[in-house]
Amino acid sequence: MSDAQVHIPEHIRNVPDGTFGDLWLPMPSEPFSPCDDLSCRRSRRDRKIPAARSTSSTIPSDEDLAWRRWLLGHHASFGVWRLLCQALSDSAGHGECDPDTRPDVHRTLTIAAELFDVYSALLLYSASCTPEIYAAAVRPRMVACHPAFSGTWSRDYEQVRVLLRPSVPTCEPGVRLKRAVKFNRLVHMAVAKRLVPDGNSLLRDSGQAGSSPTDGERDLFDTFFRTRRATICVHEFTGQLIDRTELILSDLAVYPVGTRYGRDDLDRFQAELRGHFERLDDLTGELMTKGRATCPRQNRQHSPRP
């Protein structure tokens, strides 16, 4: 579904200081395309994916900062979900992961656990505004897009959930992965409770909770978060993710997250956000040398070309 086919109010498209543009990703089932240095440079230039800027001359309002973090944090989450698909696919079907006999599985499960921690950090970063600012600057945009707008419409995280269903090996990194997944769910619930203390999700309030998302809803989720589907190469993917990670780190250097949840585990984790984001570059590079970074599906979806 193209931008023209989905009603997205103009104010949803605007990013306060213009330091990043649309995110380009393949469908979850599609591998990255072959590339060379010239085609990578041409592809990046043609799609106008800007390099990260470390400073901005404009001091954002609380509303602008909240919306920018919501969008930027989700862009980075889309990339992390793609990486999680790769890590979980690589480790699937292995009953054990002894570091001596299966060092590849052992290491891949360790990376998956670290990536889930990065995703938890992105949740806390994206949702770092006050409940009042969220109600004024973020939630109305989602309601304007669709009254039942939901994170369950993400086609990338949908594949992560599918890949988590098989049993995880009971080795040390497998246990660590389970712990990271459990903590991620805790973070998600804590964020939702803090931002909407007296209400439900839009999906639950709409009466549509429990229904499977349609392709149209998945397309709408992509469009809302300014994500376009097309075949790209590994270098273009990693470049986009690195750009956005640098923007997040630059943002945190100027505007540290001061939110507290009243739980020692959450507050300690939040104090270490920068460390999780700084690890993402190395984790991405390691996984991208392992394979094609695709989520397996029985029914392959073909992405539209730009």
Please, could you describe this protein's structure?
- The chain has helices spanning 10-13, 37-46, 62-91, 103-126, 131-137, 139-145, 155-164, 172-195, 202-205, 215-224, 234-254, 264-270, 273-288, and strands spanning 23-25, 227-229.
- The chain is mainly α and 306 residues long.
- The protein has one domain (3-288).
- A two-stranded parallel sheet has the order 1-2.
Average pLDDT level: 81
First-last Cα distance: 11 Å
How many H/I helices? 13
Shape: globular
Q: Please give the oligomerization state of what you see.
A: single chain
The computed structural class is mainly alpha
Low-confidence stretches: 1-18, 42-55, 292-306
Order of H and E elements:
HEHHHHHHHHHEHHH
| Major beta sheet summary | 2 strands, parallel
Strand content: under 5%
Number of strands: 2
Rg over CA atoms, rounded to whole Å, is 19 Å
Q: How many discrete domains?
A: 1
Strand order of the largest sheet: 1-2
Q: Provide the helix percentage.
A: 55-70%
Structural features:
306 residues; mainly alpha; 13 helices; disordered C terminus
